Amino acid sequence: MWASKTCYSKLHGADCLRKSQYAVSINGTAFAKHFLNFCHDKQISALVYIGSNDSCLKKIAEDNAFKIAAYEYMPSHSEASHFDLISLDTRQAKTAKAKIVNIWGNQEYVTTCFNVLEHIDIEDIPSAIFNLFDVSNDFLIVSIFTRPGGHGNSPHSTILPISTWKHLFEIVGFEVLDDKFVNEGQDVVTTQNDDPSSLLVTQWTKADIFRNRSAEEPNYLLLRKVNSSDRLWAREEIDRVLDIAYRKIKRTQFIMPQSEIIGFNIHHIQDFFNIRPLLDVIDRKACIVLLREGVLKNDEEQLVTGFFFRCGVMLVKYKQVAEINWRELMINTLISAAVNHALSSQIVEAAKLNGVRTILLQHGIWIEAMRDRQISFSSDYVLSWGREHETFF
Fold first, then answer.
1. CB–CB of 158/145 below 8 Å?
2. Do residues 2 and 279 touch, judged by C-beta distance below 8 A?
3. pTM higher than 0.85, yes or no?
4. Rounded distance between C-alpha atoms, residue 174 and residue 166, angstroms
5. Mean local confidence (pLDDT), 192-215
6. Is 11 helix (H, G, I), strand (E, B) or coil?
7. Which is higher by pLDDT, 71 or 26?
8. How many other CB atoms are found less than 10 A from the CB of residue 329?
9. What residues make up the domain containing 358?
10. E strand or H helix at 141, and its extent?
11. Which residues pair with 304 in a beta bridge?
């Protein structure tokens, strides 16, 4: 799978789940009041919940004599039934619904999906919403975080404003009945968080990109199925809204050698930004990231570490170049982006001594500003931005 996509076995492993500080925590009193009032008004006494962290909701339902069907969405960690929420084949969701109908008959039920959607890779969002549509009866309640998670945002794959989430559900065929189904008893993250593992959360809160700093999270949306959109059109429309269609086009233009292992040399945050687009066309098993400890700011290192953990890409941290076991890593090509950095040149020279092809992506070299400067490169090859820059090098 692509190196830029979420590796769900990593993301939902026991260790990651234990570390996550921002899993949905239902305030039993506040949520129970709204949930039970809604179910009473709609004469609903059955629940289908999808997720791995809904024990509080399950207790609320059990205490009020609800019929319950529990589904793990991936991977299965318990005795609950399971279907793949991101599967392109929606027959699993339809089969799950058929089983529910076979047991409960035509009884009305509500579907919930908590602590799930922000963990879904952005490329899998269309499939997830389609499957939620197919497994639901009339009503669906979802929880959504619109901010990063702790530990370098390793848990949250997709961060979108709530307005975009609402639009995506509407594209598929849902109507948003209430975008604040429960708006009490949740968390409000402050800008004075001293937790070193949550630097990205604090920075995000300070920046307030979505202008929702004071809003409590998670957001709970109450949705109703109104009509099923044409799936081909809906998928293309969601890809357009999320601006991810270009990735599929990129992948048709690149054929990577099956045996090639590519190493990425990171000594500056700009290195990460330069190599990020390449990860859309490289298999996660075919790349290794080398990150020298201490060269990035704390929040930048959390960002980089969290991203590669979430995507299942091998990340090697080191302090001295001599620590790198080139024979064990079997890197064929090392790609760098930083220039005029002595520390970065060290690892390039070490790679060449170990028979590794080295490539520099042009970065930070401006012809107009550097015509009178002597520039030397450690890498075997320099990939320039265009013909003008090629002749300069």
1. no
2. yes
3. yes
4. 9
5. 79
6. helix
7. 71
8. 16
9. 257-392
10. strand 139-144
11. none
pLDDT at 66 over 60: yes
* 246-264 pLDDT, tens digit each: 999 999 998 877 789 999 9
- Other Cβ atoms less than 10 A from the Cβ of 13: the count is 14
Number of domains in the chain: 2
Q: What is the Cα–Cα distance from 182 to 28, expressed in whole angstroms?
A: 11
**What is the residue type of 52?**
S
Q: Are 318 and 298 in contact (CB under 8 A)?
A: no
Question: How do beta strands 262-266 and 81-82 pair?
Answer: unpaired
Indicate whether 389 pLDDT > 70.
no
What average pLDDT does range 47-55 have in this prediction? 76
Strands, DSSP E only, in 168-286? 174-178, 219-225, 262-266
Stronger pLDDT, 228 or 90, i.e. the higher one: 228
What's the Cα-to-Cα distance from 391 to each of 91, 125, 234, 274, 381, rounded to whole Å? Answer: 56, 44, 46, 22, 14
- 126 prior amide bond cis, ω within 30: no
Among 222, 245, 268, the domain boundary falls at 245
Is 312 in contact with 10 (CB distance < 8 Å)? yes
Q: Give Rg (Cα) of the chain.
A: 24
Same domain, 357 and 215: no
Token pair, residue 292, equals 């020298």
pLDDT in tens, 300-351: 999 999 999 999 999 999 999 999 999 999 999 999 986 557 888 899 999 9
61 and 195 share one domain: yes
Looking at residue 256, what is its pLDDT? 77
